[in-house]
């Protein structure tokens, strides 16, 4: 990760700088694979036809936007979804399969090939590379320009690669080309810790390492300094079921204590499970006085699982912190939607209006926003009446006037809608095209998942309270804010994904959602192969 690279860079600067000076430390490249390739390509990509060093790196939102144009919305039975096509394209790139080499033995494969070709052409026309391209194009550069490869081989006499089990085929080939005969190459990794199969990583690269390089010396590090004997036994028992260990079977051990047994609780559903976890934490801290809140971590496979867990903790006034993410109701996209809904209840809510006047982007600049809101704050009239007067007085440019009028008219219209909360929310999303706007922004996939989870929250509210009003829904959500009166010295429970937890440790850990289809995650698309996590 970039965070790990930054931390390692600081350690290298400190260690080498003290011995050989800052200039020597600066010559060492410390990067993720993608950052390394981007830096190299800025210098060399011009040697490839149609490529320039000023390339941009496409976001996932950019990728999906291109594929939506090529594939369509993905609606209807049997229709291909843009996300499914992107998965196939990324898997091809992870395996260094370019469009001209993509297999097209069936009509379905031919369609994917055509989408892949169209997708790459749009990237090329835009002067863009996606993340997978950074690796694939660098490999192509090295293969097609031996002199360039030799120059970079001589530049790096020593190459160290961390977390090698998380590399994919393209990254392994990049290392193989750059390292040459392998002298001066060191890789650290553990095939049994490969948890990124869903994004193309292949733990077998650890085994291929010994085949692709000569005179490899393998040093097994079997002593564990973190876990108890019981946890290691449980881990070893699970690892024993993993296939393809390639003769590198190992048994981790520790000098530590035996430790408590691993407990298993089978809940009837996610609400039962979350309630059990929260109750156990509350009992341990407040009744048995055995632990502090900071001792606990709750792990889950997807961020969308956190909402029900957060609800269960809040009901028991248990303080918590989401790591590598914000609390569900504090996430930007959720706050945007809440602002819209609050305006339907209270059309004079200036704070909410300020938040959404240009969300999604409507071409209303900051100066126009400030001018309108300044008038609103001075006027005794209602917010919407004052806004309309600002429009009539031409206090803002024509484009902004049209956008603001359209927004106010829409809010007026939605205020009159008499539908259940979930239906109203779905109508709001459709009318303001919020999801379409998100798809053009960064972090599109996770933010869209959060919007879907918020819609599910509204469905749950109506299911449990069919006559529930929008006001009641907003009140329930508002009361879900974290409590302010807990003892901060006690710390808080940590909520994080399994992937975010890698490298961290906690005295007491709950793993939520250990069930078929969720752990390991079975993707909605049947196009994705996944490894046991």
Question: Any descriptors?
Answer:
PCRA, domain 4; four-stranded parallel β-sheet; mainly alpha; disordered C terminus; 533 residues; Rossmann fold; 23 helices; 8 strands; two-stranded parallel ribbon; Arc Repressor Mutant, subunit A
Low-confidence stretches: 481-490, 524-533
**Major sheet strand order:** 6-7-5-8
CATH topology of the domain at 331-444 and 455-461: PCRA, domain 4
Look at the helices and sheets and give the structural class. mainly alpha
Q: Main sheet?
A: 4 strands, parallel
- What is the name of the CATH architecture of the domain at 331-444 and 455-461? Orthogonal Bundle
Give the CATH class of the domain at 331-444 and 455-461: Mainly Alpha
- In percent, how helical is the residue content? 40-55%
Alpha-carbon distance between the termini?
19 Å
Mean pLDDT: 84
Q: What is the helix tally?
A: 23
Radius of gyration, CA atoms, in whole angstroms: 27 Å
The CATH superfamily name of the domain at 331-444 and 455-461 is PCRA, domain 4
Beta strand count: 8
Form type: globular
Query: What share of the residues does DSSP label as strand, in percent?
Result: 5-15%
Oligomer: single chain
């Amino acid at each position: 990760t970039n965070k790990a690279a930054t931390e390692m860079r600081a350690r290298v600067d400190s260690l080498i700088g003290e011995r050989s000076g800052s200039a020597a430390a600066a010559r060492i490249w410390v990067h993720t694979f993608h950052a390394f390739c981007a830096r190299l390509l800025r210098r060399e990509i011009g040697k490839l036809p149609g490529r320039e060093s000023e390339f941009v790196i496409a976001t996932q939102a950019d990728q999906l936007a291109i594929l939506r144009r090529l594939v369509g919305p993905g609606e209807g039975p049997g229709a291909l979804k843009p996300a499914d096509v992107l998965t196939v394209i990324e898997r091809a790139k992870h395996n260094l399969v370019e469009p001209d080499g993509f297999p097209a033995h069936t009509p379905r494969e031919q369609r994917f090939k055509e989408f892949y070709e169209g997708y790459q052409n749009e990237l090329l026309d835009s002067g863009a590379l996606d993340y997978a391209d950074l690796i694939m194009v660098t490999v192509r550069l090295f293969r097609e320009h031996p002199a360039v490869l030799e120059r970079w081989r001589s530049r790096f006499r020593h190459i160290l690669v961390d977390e090698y089990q998380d590399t994919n085929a393209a990254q392994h080939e990049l290392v193989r080309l750059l390292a040459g005969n392998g002298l001066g190459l060191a890789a650290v990794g553990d095939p049994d810790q490969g948890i990124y199969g869903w994004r193309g990583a292949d733990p077998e690269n650890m085994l291929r390492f010994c085949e692709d390089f000569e005179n490899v010396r393998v040093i097994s590090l079997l002593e564990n300094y973190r876990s108890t004997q019981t946890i290691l036994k449980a881990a070893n028992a699970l690892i024993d079921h993993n296939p393809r260990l390639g003769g590198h079977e190992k048994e981790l051990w520790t000098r530590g204590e035996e430790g408590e047994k691993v407990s298993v609780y089978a809940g009837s559903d996610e609400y039962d499970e979350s309630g059990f976890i929260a109750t156990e934490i509350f009992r341990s801290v407040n009744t048995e006085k055995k632990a502090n809140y900071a001792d606990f971590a709750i792990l889950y496979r997807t961020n969308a699982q956190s909402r029900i867990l957060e609800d269960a903790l809040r009901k028991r006034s248990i303080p918590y912190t989401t790591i590598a993410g914000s609390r569900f109701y504090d996430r930007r996209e959720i706050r945007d939607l809440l602002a819209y809904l609050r305006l339907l209840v209270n059309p004079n809510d200036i704070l909410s209006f300020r938040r959404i006047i240009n969300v999604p982007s409507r071409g209303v600049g900051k100066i126009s926003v400030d001018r309108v809101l300044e008038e609103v704050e001075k006027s005794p009239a209602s917010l919407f009446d004052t806004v309309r007067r600002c429009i009539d007085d031409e206090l803002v440019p024509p484009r902004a006037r049209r956008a603001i009028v359209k927004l106010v008219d829409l809010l007026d219209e939605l205020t009159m809608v008499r539908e259940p909360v979930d239906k109203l929310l779905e109508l709001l999303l459709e009318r303001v095209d919020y999801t379409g706007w998100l798809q053009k922004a960064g972090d599109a996939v996770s933010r869209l998942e959060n919007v879907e989870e918020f819609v599910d929250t509204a469905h749950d509210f109506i299911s449990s309270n069919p006559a529930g009003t929008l006001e009641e829904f907003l009140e329930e959500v508002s009361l879900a804010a974290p409590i302010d009166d807990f003892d901060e010295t006690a710390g808080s429970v940590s909520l994080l994904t399994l992937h975010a937890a890698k490298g961290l440790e906690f005295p007491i850990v709950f793993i939520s959602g250990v069930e078929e289809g969720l752990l390991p995650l079975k993707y909605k698309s049947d196009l994705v192969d996944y490894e046991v996590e």
